Every structure is written in structure tokens, then in C-alpha cells.
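PROTOCOL LOG
Step 1. Enter all chains and additional molecules of the complex.
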Amino acid sequence: MALAQEIIKEDKYIAELEKLREISLQIDPNVCLQCNKCVGSCTTAQVYTFRPARIMRYVALGMISHLIAGKEIWLCVQCLRCVDLCKMNVKPAEVIILLRNLATKFHELPTASWKRLIESVMKIGSMSEEVEQFAWKKTPVKRKDIGLAPLKFLPGEKLKMLLQIGEEI
Amino acid sequence: MTATQQYAYELAVKRVFPVFGIELVDIDEFSCCGEPLRNVNVKKWLVFASRILAEASTRDLDIVTTCNGCYLSLNEARRVLQENSQIMYKINQALRKIGLELSSLPRVKHVIQLLYDDIGIERIKGKVKREIKIKAATHYGCHILRPREFAVDNPYNPTKLEELCNAIGIKTEDYPERLDCCMLMLDHMDLKKANLIRAKKLKSIIERKFDCLVTVCPLCQNEYETRQRAIARLMKNPKLRIPVVYYVQLLGIALGFSPEDVGLHLNTSPIGSLLSKITES
Ligand code: SF4
Ligand code: SF4
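Step 2. Run joint prediction.
Step 3. Record the structure below.
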């Protein structure tokens, strides 16, 4: 692809990222000093070549397309150590969340497990349906067996309206 | 509070707080706080979280979360609304369509704050009927310690959970993995790797001869409980049996409730060894 086209493509993502920043206040990858403090504290960096500082540098340079097409941004566990340690208030974990937002918009969720989770919240407003729980001795238990009121879920109509509102704000 | 998938936790919380004069009201309209949606669409998350805040505010109630994830999600939403009047305006306009309004922002507290900051160690000590003579490993989880503005304790050396344990007779001890992340979010990408990291923590707990792991978050609890068998297989240690319990369950027993009252029989980790120790003491 010609360089000009590459840049236009990136511009689209940069503009989207800017829009999301309205909601996430106070993040600014552009002031990242590459001090690597976030890397030293990062839970994921201990077991992967994942480096929050590197991701912040790419975002500052406007090189976003490969980040949102790849799986790396989904490895962050949101332990928020980077947010606490970064003296420039870059908030790497929050920037990564916004990159995931872009990734979802322009690509697919990275795994079936992620898809299941998000579908469930969108469909029933909760992470999982009422299930029989198994105690440690493997005996099945239901809420009513132990005097708990049944789980209630948000009515479908209300849930739909909520998700719709989310599109509009 | 709201009905949950964590029956054991729910039972224990509902038993324990009335002892200290705190009334808990179930709100049927509560749903997920929206936290998972943050990853795919921050606007949808904000609407979800704001609605929960609005449901509480229209009833003139404050919110106590039993979950670290909800605690941070709702507090983050509060901050966004507080700091950005334009967004607050838009959200309110939208909420009105479903008959709600955010006239004020309810306070959002975590169970550990209610216990330590509001009830206090001394009042808890005063109500103890039975000391729990065990040695427990504590687990805080991430979202009640960071970011700093919402931290319930010192993010680098929290002591509240240990003090709460000590108050009911439980011995605690520092261990290197105490403040580790439960790795929940990596489960969706690479469950085996996440289990390997959790295995490190459980191994350390065995080596240091702790009687159990004590948690304050249903998501963390689930990671060390339900996944324990898979972790045992990974560690090639079929005998791995670490009881994982909520602090509130142990508190309940100290206050005189039976193990069944606080749902101990519903925990999915093997709690047999712990039960016998507790009943001995
Ligand atoms: S994000 Fe912050 S901590 Fe990380 S390298 Fe940049 S300035 Fe340093
Ligand atoms: S929040 Fe993500 S990027 Fe930040 S330290 Fe934790 S794992 Fe690393």
C-alpha cells in the first residue's frame, strides 16, 4: 500500500481514538517519556514480551492499525500497576482499553471466550445465567434450596434501550 | 446489594451486616455493572454503570459492592460524571428515557471499607463469640488497591484485611504473592498460562503452610476456587487442596453463625480440612 494511503488509514483510527478520549479523561500517550516504569511493574510483561511502554509509543506516533489488528492488547490483565506508577499520568491500562474498543469496532473479538462474555452481558445484562451451583462435595444447589430469592434479570426491552442509549451519547 | 452467582458470599454478607446494624436492600433492577463492556465500548459501559448509580440514587441509597470489579467500575463512572458536566448532561437526558434520573451520585463502597472504616476493628472484636484459630493467606485483588484515588488501603502495603483477620483470631503472614493479580482477564486469551501463574501463588501457600486463602472479591475467589482442579493437574499435584473462602464467611463463623449459615458448604474448593480446624478451635 502506498504511504499516503497508510497515513489516511491511520488518520481514521486516530480520529476514533480522539472521540473516545472524551469519556476517558486525562489520558495522554503523547507525553510518555519511555521511562519504562510501567514495564517494570507490569503483570503481563512478566510472562509475555508485551510492553505497555512500547504500545504507548506506537499510539503517540499514530501507528495504531497493527495494534488493533493484533492480539497483544488483549493480553493486559488490567491490574492497573502501570496507572499507579506512571509519573506522566499516561494511564497505559486505560489507553489499552480504548485500543480494545477500536479493535472491536474494526475487527473481531480475539477469542471465543471473549465473545461469549460480551454476548452474555449484551443479551441478559449479566455475566452468566442462573445456574445450579456445585458445592465442594459436588452436590448441586439451587438458590431456592438455600433461601435465596431467584436471580432477576433486566427485562429485554430495557436492556435494548440501554445499549441503544450507549450508541447515542 | 443485588442477587449474585456467588451464593456463598451472598449468604454470608446477608447474615453478617445486620449484626452491625447495617440494613441491606436488594434492588431487583440491578444488572451487571458494565465492567466487561468497557473493553468493547466505553460508552456502553458508562451507560450501564450510570444506570446502576441512578437506580440507587432514586431510592436514596448508597451502594456497597461485594466485588472489586464493580467497586472500581462504579467509582470510575462516578468520576467521569463528576468531572465532565457535558457527559453528565447527556447521560441524564438518556436516562430520562427509561424513567430514571441522576440527581445525586450515591456513594460506592466496598465490603472491606464497610467493615474496616465504618464498623471498625473494635466493634468487630466486641462481637466475636468464637475465635478462628487458623493461619490464613490474604488476597486483596487489584481493583480495590489501584488506581490510587479509589484505593481502600495503601496500594503497596495494605494491612486492612490482615487486621480484620487478626480481629477474629486468624493469624496472617506476608508472602511474596500476596498482592498478585488473579489473572482473570488472561483466562479469555490463554487459560493455561493464567493457571500457571495462579499455580505459583497456590504453591507458595502450601509451602508456607497456610490453612486457607482468604479473599474479598467473587472474581478472584472464583479463579482460585473453581480452577483449582485444573491448576492441580498442571502442577502434577493431584493432592492440591487449598480451601478458598471469603473473609465475610469466616467473620460470620466468628460471630456465632454455623458454617452452613454463611454458605461454607457451597464453596467449590475443598474446605474439609478448614472446617475441622474451625470446629476444633
Ligand atoms: S507510560 Fe508512563 S511509565 Fe510507561 S514509559 Fe511512558 S511515561 Fe514511563
Ligand atoms: S494494567 Fe495491563 S499494562 Fe498495566 S501493568 Fe497491568 S497488565 Fe501491564
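Step 4. Note key features.
Chain A has a mean pLDDT of 88.
The radius of gyration of chain A is 20 Å.
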